[in-house]
Design brief:
- The chain has helices at about 15-25, 35-45, 90-105, 120-130, 165-175, 225-230, 230-250, and strands at about 5-10, 45-50, 60-70, 70-80, 110-115, 135-140, 155-165, 190, 195-200, 200-205, 215-220, 255-260, 265-275.
- It has about 280 residues and is an alpha+beta fold.
- The protein folds into two domains: about 5-175, Aminopeptidase, CATH 3.40.630; about 185-275, no CATH class.
- The longest helix has 20 residues, at about 230-250.
């Protein structure tokens, strides 16, 4: 999609109010971040970035706030979303890159956000495109959620940590997506789940919880939403089995350092690596 987009740090109060309606379009729910909370994010130690098209219509939103936990200061990106017609564009990347630039100007070097670990798009964007690293898994973080996107599965979340000054982050965000290629040979990497195709979708036959190697991969579906609509029981099976993998190996000190796609097999893979001093 050809873009004529500007990303700005909004300050006008009426613009904040319009973002409530925008959120319902993007996430399809009534439980939005109220405009007065967004104002607080912006004015008291946070950031709200809005992407506008050539008609000054909001088409993307990122918001978050600065936080402190376990002796560490960081920025928590609470929401990042775009209108459906921009999902496959560079806009989701551009919003976080713009936030990175602002945070570095403020002297903040660490950021984090949460993704549904079965959301292949978010995983690929967060880790492969932006250089984030998966370090922590949170089981049913929000409890059962009512919005259409989350309904049906427990709200497990993977914590993405983003080292804003790292060379790997700089390298990944500077690549043009049109030039990207997944060069990793998955045939040479051990797999933590064994799958079989069952009609249009794959099911998990077995999982491996006792691997003791430097690197392995974890397959997830390319489109968990389609599976949920067709057969919720298969989606629940994916959630419960992959949860065991995430919890087991992250607890043992592995990091999730990459996400690759296998377009021929319509699958997506997390790459787990043993933690080293350079990756921690």
């Amino acid at each position: 999609m050809k873009q004529n987009i500007k990303i700005v740090r909004v300050t006008d109060r009426e613009s904040f109010k319009l973002l409530e309606a925008f959120q319902t379009i993007v996430w399809g729910r009534g439980e939005v971040v109220p405009y007065h909370v967004l104002i607080a994010f912006q004015e008291i130690g946070g950031v709200v970035l809005v992407a506008y098209d050539e008609h000054n219509k909001p088409v993307g939103l990122l918001c978050g706030y600065n936080s402190f936990k376990n002796g560490e200061a960081f920025h928590y990106m609470h929401l990042c979303g775009v209108l459906p017609e921009y999902i496959n564009s560079e806009l989701p990347i551009q919003l976080r890159v713009a936030a990175r630039e602002h945070l570095l100007e403020q002297g903040i070097t660490q950021a984090m956000w949460l993704i549904d670990p079965l959301d292949a798009f978010e995983a690929y964007t967060s880790i492969h495109r932006l250089g984030g690293v998966g370090k922590e898994y949170m089981r049913n973080f929000y409890g059962l959620m009512r919005d259409p996107h989350n309904r049906g599965l427990e709200s497990d979340r993977l914590v993405i940590r983003w080292d804003l000054k790292s060379e790997e982050v700089e390298e990944k965000i500077s690549r043009r997506s049109i030039d990207e290629k997944d060069n990793l040979d998955l045939t040479s990497i051990e797999k933590s789940v064994i799958t079989v195709r069952d009609g249009a979708f794959k099911r998990i036959l077995d999982c491996r919880l006792n691997l003791n190697i430097d690197k392995f991969c974890l397959e997830i579906p390319m489109d968990i939403e389609s599976i949920k609509k067709k057969d919720l029981s298969i989606a629940i099976e994916w959630r419960e089995t992959t949860r065991r993998i995430f919890e087991q190996y992250l607890r043992k000190g592995y990091l999730i350092t990459e996400v690759v796609k296998d377009s021929k097999d319509n699958s997506c893979y997390y790459i787990f690596e043993k933690k080293t001093s350079s990756k921690s």
